[in-house]
Amino acid sequence: MLNSNQGIIVVTTDIWTTSNQKRGYMVVIAHYIDDSWNLCSKILRFMYVPAPHNAKMLTKALMECLIAWSIDCKLSTLTLDNCSVNFCMMEKMKDKLRHDNLLLKGELLHMKCCAHILNLIVQQGLSAIQSGIESIRESVVFWTATPKRVEKFEEMKDGVSLSSKRKLDLDCKTRWNSTYLMLMSVIPYKEST
Question: Do the Cβ atoms of 189 and 164 come closer than 8 Å?
Fold first, then answer.
């Protein structure tokens, strides 16, 4: 499908390290308009990236993927998180890609991820109430740690005649939307304390 595509291709990539394995992974996704003018998104590769996760190693992994899919000459932009290693990686990517194939000779190659920017802004705002969030998080961790505690929580909830059927949600500290969901899951129980 990508070989027959006559248009340009936008690539997004994200890199993260698993907490339990301490291994780094990269996902590479292509976005393009097909011949019927439909927006398509395809995962090209989900790969393990050995340490160190520096600009050189990440550039190598990404370039291998782009070349394997023959889209290094159809690339329009790369969207990445706003971390310093990605800025260095983008400089290396510009050196490896042919400038005459790039939109405005690579001036627009690096697109900063808006979701990451929004997350950084919201995390900064949440820092003002961080101690309260930590207390709530510790409570949710306590009550959801074992099936026995979940059962006890349900018994206590029934004992005070709370009508909420909502379960407690534990957040991921780095994802503001999951912190929001955690806070929304505990609000019905605030009035009973």
Answer: yes
Backbone angle region of 106, left / alpha / beta, with phi > 0 → left and psi within -120 to 50 → alpha: left
Whether the Cβ atoms of residue 181 and residue 169 lie closer than 8 Å to each other: yes
* β-pair partners for 132: none
Q: Are 118 and 82 in contact (CB under 8 A)?
A: no
CA-to-CA distance for 170 and 174, rounded, in angstroms?
A: 12
pLDDT digit of tens for each residue in the chain (193 aa)? 666 666 788 899 988 877 666 788 999 999 998 888 889 899 999 999 888 888 899 999 999 999 998 888 788 888 888 778 888 888 888 888 877 767 677 677 777 877 778 888 888 888 899 999 999 999 999 999 999 999 998 888 777 766 677 888 988 877 788 899 999 999 888 765 5
Question: Which DSSP helix (H) or strand (E) runs through 93?
Answer: helix 84-96
Would you kindly state where each structural domain of the chain is located, as residue ranges? 9-115, 125-190
CATH 3.30.1330 fits 9-115, yes or no: no
